[in-house]
Design brief:
The protein is of the alpha+beta class. The protein is built from 15 helices and 15 strands. A six-stranded antiparallel sheet has the order 3-2-1-6-5-4, with helices on both faces. A five-stranded mixed sheet has the order 12-13-11-14-15, with helices on both faces. Strand 12 and strand 13 form a beta hairpin. The protein is rod-shaped, with a radius of gyration of 48 Å. The C terminus is likely disordered.
Length: about 550
């Protein structure tokens, strides 16, 4: 209070003014406290909102952007960065917002740094918050590539602490010196704690998502495996099983190369194979090689040399042990085979092994059903099936029918065991005289047939002559050697379709020709055309594979 001219103040006036001043100071302090409380209430509300928002987020980037946005409501800054620690030593920015020109063009690669490097790296390593009044002058600072080294800049940094570990760092920057207060730092520390909890939750959620996706992939792979193995297990041809392996694995496990090596019992090894596959066979153990270049068991091809990649080698098992190896290769070091893929291939190989065993048993039964027990040649039933199939497919062929001459005498003189042994030697001689494409059958008793695919009468006549000469060279067994036995046969030749439009017609034509050879002196060859005069005078009387060698089925001249 004042007067514009001299005025004596009374004691009462002074006391009144003093009392008024006291009330005024109380009112002002109350207002100041209210303003501070309003600020704190706003901050508390922001923190509550932040907590509610972060609780709903499961993405690290979303969390970072949300923190950056909310911080803007409480602390004035020009730039914010949210860092996460990756692989234990890399600080990677997951969110950033620049408000002025010095910050808006910052990139992830520019801001990426190591734990321990610069102010951000120091906070990450020490777990201690910082209020840096002049960042350019701080000895711990490191200049970001492409920015000014002596820029007047203030910084706030707070570690995201979770269970005594640092998950990342929150960083605020503002142009100018002494731009942040200790209250700002305390607020940032609170935000950092919320961020740490949210980031930890996001990590858990991500692991759960990854685990769920992994389990879903495993379940899908298991379903695919069941469907695949169902078709493989119903395949009874070993070659078809191997073909299906390569077809089905394409959709089951991604690979660049696949190989199936089958153990060669005669050689006692995998043909042309050494290295890891050989090791798998010898140890009967599956192997996952994550890095081909670091495993000495992997032998690179000489033509291309060592290559980066991963391998899965799994044994295929038969009834008597390992019968082969299934090998998968994925090239490149970026995405090696995983343990889950390894487990899936092992399961697949186990099913394949069962399929191969089933096919092997089926094939053995099939061969036994098609084979004559004594000579190991194909039997009469198989002969009819093959011939009928060739006729149905209109594939030309010739047929040789061979009837041994006077074979009953061998059994009478030397006994049945000698006769059986001689039949086996004869069978071997017939096979040896034929061609690889020819099929030899024991038609029954002492009769044999030979099917010659895509062979005309002239070609069949030449093969028949070789067979006739080969029979002369057959040495009788010891029990028949003293009987002065000469092995020979009467041979008939017919051709489809020239000598008959059906399988029975061709067989009858060959049988008539064989009859002509027998009746005109034996040990000779007759063609179907030679026997044409017998048409209507003879019928084919078929012996069976179980006819004992002593029974001779004679043909009658009566129909």
């Amino acid at each position: 209070l004042y007067h514009d001219r001299p005025h004596p103040w009374t004691d009462e006036e002074l006391e009144t003014l003093a009392a008024l001043a006291t009330q005024g100071s109380v009112a002002i302090r109350t207002a100041q406290n209210y303003a501070q409380m309003a600020t704190w209430a706003a901050q508390l509300q922001s923190i509550q909102q932040l907590g509610a928002q972060l609780a709903r987020l499961t993405s690290v980037r979303e969390i970072g952007l949300t923190i950056a946005t909310e911080l803007r409501q409480l602390i004035d800054y020009h730039n914010v960065r949210v860092y996460r620690i990756v692989d234990g030593h890399i600080l990677m920015p997951v969110a950033m917002k620049g408000q002025v020109g010095e910050y808006v063009d910052e990139t992830v690669e520019q801001l990426r740094t190591e734990v321990g490097e610069g102010l951000t790296g120091w906070v990450a390593a020490q777990g201690v918050p910082l209020n840096v009044v002049d960042a350019a002058k701080d000895p711990r600072a490191a200049t970001i590539p492409g920015t000014e080294a002596d820029l007047d800049e203030s910084m706030l940094l707070a570690p995201m602490l979770y269970e005594d570990g640092v998950l990342g760092v929150l960083v605020l920057s503002k142009l100018g010196l002494n731009q942040f207060t200790d209250d700002d730092l305390r607020l940032l520390v609170i935000y950092a704690s919320f961020a740490a909890q949210a980031m930890a939750n996001a990590d858990v959620a991500e692991r759960l998502r990854a685990k769920s996706a992994d389990l879903e992939r495993q379940l899908r792979s298991q379903r695919d495996l069941l469907q695949i193995t169902e078709s493989i297990l119903t395949t009874l041809d070993p070659r078809a099983v191997l073909d299906q392996i390569t077809d089905k694995l394409v959709g089951l496990v991604r690979h660049d190369n696949i190989g199936i090596e089958i153990w060669d019992r005669a050689l006692g090894r995998l043909p042309g194979e050494e290295g890891l596959a050989t090791w798998v066979v010898e140890h009967a153990e599956p192997v996952l090689v994550v890095d081909e270049l670091s495993d000495p068991r992997v032998r690179p091809f000489d033509s291309i040399g060592p290559v980066a990649g991963s391998l899965i080698d799994v044994p295929l098992r038969g009834r008597e042990g390992v019968i082969g190896v299934l090998s998968l290769e994925r090239l490149g070091a970026e995405e090696p085979f995983t343990e889950d893929e390894f487990e899936l291939v092992k399961l697949f190989a186990a099913q394949v092994s069962i399929a191969l065993q089933n096919a092997e048993v089926h094939r053995a039964v099939e061969i036994k059903a098609q084979t004559d027990d004594l000579t190991c040649l194909l039997n009469q039933g198989t002969f009819h099936e093959v011939m009928e199939r060739r006729v149905a497919d209109a594939e030309p062929f010739s047929l040789i029918m061979l009837d041994l001459d006077d074979f009953k005498r061998v059994n009478d003189v030397a006994g049945h065991q000698a006769g059986d042994e001689l039949l086996r030697r004869i069978a071997a001689a017939i096979v040896g005289a034929g061609r690889e494409s020819d099929s030899v059958f024991r038609y029954g008793g002492d009769e044999f047939t030979i099917l010659l695919p895509n062979t005309d009468t002239s070609g069949a006549r030449a093969v028949a002559e070789r067979v006739r000469q080969a029979l002369h060279a057959v040495v009788p067994p010891d029990g028949a050697a003293h009987a002065d036995i000469l092995v020979s046969a009467s041979i008939g030749v017919a051709t489809f379709p020239a000598d008959g439009p059906t399988a029975p017609a061709v067989l009858l034509a060959a049988d008539r020709a064989c009859y002509v050879a027998k009746r005109t002196g034996r040990d000779r060859i007759a063609l179907a055309v030679d026997a044409a005069v017998l048409a209507g005078q003879t019928e084919l009387q078929e012996p069976t594979p179980v006819d004992p060698p002593t029974i001779r089925v004679e043909r009658s001249s009566q129909a």
